[in-house]
Amino acid sequence: MIVTPTETTFLTAAFYKFVDLPDHADRRAPLLAFCEAHNVKGLVLLAREGINSTIAGTPEDVRAVLAYLRQDPKLADLEHKESISSKAPFHRMKVRLKKEIVTLGVNGISPTQRVGQYVKPEDWNDLISAPDVVVIDTRNDYEVEIGTFKGAVDPQIQSFSQLPKWVKQAKVLEEKNGQKPRVAMFCTGGIRCEKSTALMLEHGFEDVYHLQGGILKYLEIVSPEKSLWEGECFVFDERVSVGHGLTPGPHELCRSCREPLPANAKESPLFEVGVSCPRCHEHTSNVQKDSARERQKQWEIAKARQINHIGTPQRQERVAALLPIDAPILYSFRRCPYAMRARLALLSSGIRCEIREIALSQKPESMLAVSPKGTVPVLVMKDQVLEESLDILNWALQQNDPESWSTAGTDLHSDALALVLQCDSEFKRHLDRYKYPNRYNLPDGLEDRQQGSLFVSQLNEKLSQSANLMGPAWCWVDAAIAPFVRQFARTDREWFDAQAWQPLQNWLTSFETSEAYSVVMHKYKVWHQGAKPVSYPAAP
What we know:
Layout: E1 10-18, H1 24-37, E2 41-47, E3 50-57, H2 59-70, E4 80-85, E5 93-97, E6 117-119, H3 121-129, E7 133-137, H4 141-144, E8 147-149, H5 163-169, E9 182-186, H6 191-202, E10 208-211, H7 214-221, E11 229-231, E12 233-234, E13 241-242, H8 286-304, H9 314-322, E14 329-332, H10 337-349, E15 353-357, H11 365-370, E16 378-380, E17 385-386, H12 389-399, H13 413-435, H14 446-463, H15 476-491, H16 493-497, H17 502-512, H18 515-520, E18 535-536
Parallel strand pairs: 2-5, 6-10, 7-9, 9-10, 14-15
Antiparallel strand pairs: 1-3, 1-4, 2-3, 8-11, 12-13, 14-16, 15-18, 16-17
Helix pairs in contact: 10-12, 10-15, 13-14, 13-15, 14-17
């Protein structure tokens, strides 16, 4: 179903595919990074046997993720189901590695090897109406409770892994006249019944069928007038249930057990909003109930203030408000001069981003996935990844240049490029050897300090003629070079201050005491997977 949504709607895409993925663990980090860059939320399960997922976001972003997945020949024919909602169905993005994408717990059962016969939704009614067909709902009992197909058998299981035991004992599946019955199986989206039909074939059943696309595809294309579906279909997101046409149903979720509220649940003395329902009341301790009450209290406070509450401190709510929906992600390291110049340019351009401070000794997988070279800065956007500091600087100024930093199109531009190139090549080489002589098996870095001083003296000469490197106003060249001069000066500040470089020293002092420097050098905690978003510039 192709949906044409309005600007305020969210597109939910559900998909799965059984396919041999021996490298599934290596796929996790790049997929997570891509989803995060597109602000897509939801859950993806990866296993050796395939992929299973439901994700949501803007239609453009969700379809970008689907296109990214289908670039892989193994997933080129990946099918998905769409639905539209006015409320975000998910609040986080997770990509998890699993032993199975749907847990049956029986070794050797693989839909990639053999599976039952697919039945299209438009042909399903005829099949399940046949008197010699046993129709089995493979879902959990709380799902069946709110809706199922007319005449379907409910195994009354609490998890899919209980189905194999039920199959062995079910009287409805016993042979009659020396022959096993025909079996038709169904589930929400098709994934559980694919595996369950593989199980049935393993048990010797020959005529095994399953609903292609699951209940959701049936409800999407079969009209209510022709339907044999009774009730609503439970879904694992904030919609809770859907009906024909995949329109959201009337059911509510118990925030404790995450299952739909039973009929008349709110009238029960065991029901407490956000804390328990008749189904789960006896299964949680008083400590757990008290914790749920506090969570519910915070949610109600947040709702009254008209802000989101997902268990995060209110400061994080302000941070989230500061970040645009499509904010770039900047991987950075506070003291790195390359990262400093990138942060200076983003600050000058007024571009807010999510900053991820890294530890050089433990670089995050999500960064390495999008930039295998493993150096900062890295700027991740919806449609591109910038891995070089000057590329980030130039991109930022192309978006917005309120302080007229750019020299592009002026007579100064070629000289500006040459000066920065000199800084990044020969001066940086001597700076590294001066600062870290042991890395290069040098007795000391004094010779390289002397060679680096030639460039610093050149800068000093230019600054004796103007307040900044390319004239009276600070520009991108100053921002690109100052972090490296700062590092050179701090290697031995007493020696540096004793040199006859007064114009350069004044220029550096002006930089280090500026408001921009204070913002750029703000200390952030080292980022880890699952951490809450942090805004750059920092939230007030």
